[in-house]
Amino acid sequence: GAVVSQHPSWVICKSGTSVKIECRSLDFQATTMFWYRQFPKQSLMLMATSNEGSKATYEQGVEKDKFLINHASLTLSTLTVTSAHPEDSSFYICSARGTDDQPQHFGDGTRLSIL
Amino acid sequence: GESVGLHLPTLSVQEGDNSIINCAYSNSASDYFIWYKQESGKGPQFIIDIRSNMDKRQGQRVTVLLNKTVKHLSLQIAATQPGDSAVYFCADAFSGTYKYIFGTGTRLKVLA
Lengths: 115, 112
Description:
With 115 residues, chain A is mostly beta strands. Chain A is 0% helix and 52% strand. Chain B has 112 residues and is an all-beta fold. In chain B, strands 1, 3, 4, 8, 9 and 10 form a 6-stranded mixed beta sheet that branches. A 4-stranded antiparallel beta sheet of chain B has the order 2-7-6-5, with no helix packed on it.
């Protein structure tokens, strides 16, 4: 149980394009989803918290117009990296949880490479 | 956890031995603690969690110990196997927000 699917797993695109990443909870309803960014050999840094049906809460320093988050249903959240540039290249990981006191379960991440 | 930069500590353990991975956290208000295992190119996988009203919790081959006095968390893996090789992250959270703070991570290498 508690499977989170993230798609795509790898994307390479040109500078200036926008990229959408999907995060789905497959066997539970996720009231809250989280988006993280991870640099090589580093820990996970929380970018934003997404609650179904409401606006995402962004961490300090994360541009909300750059990283658009939509959480339209209890099983799907999307992260769109708008006008991506090489410095946006990273490993993006989503997580989801059911109730507040349940652990977060993570997707397998999306490796984003901007040329 | 405390994320302190680019250095990733490594623990090398002989196959069959027990492993102990340590973690420090800084927020005295944290009351929920979790361990994750991350294999290369994948997302973190939940291992075990513990709440602040406990100081020990056991799972299958794993034990988490919590010392709130010194804000320290450890993960013990019994009879370490090659499949245990991965990076292990601790995370702490306050039940008011359940927003995780991840530690730096420790790479576990299992030697045959």
